[in-house]
# Entry
Amino acid sequence: HQTLERDENSRGLSFDSYLIMPVQRIPRYVLLLQDLLNNTVKEHLDYENINGALGRVKDFANYINVSKRQTENLEKLRAIQERLTSDAED
# Structure
């Protein structure tokens, strides 16, 4: 990881930063598709396709958020379990 951060092409970003970038783009896609839909007349041939894409991207963003919350909750549960285990050993 440290080698990547020192590489001039990495712009000083860590490996983890690069891994999260695609996930951070999802909300931007929602905004982009929403803006495109708002500026497309309902009679346009692509209106329904844009609307469908927006719905799928929103669903995916929601799935990511739910998964992230579940992962955070599992991490909290593990931390509690570790504390309880270490307290029991003392």
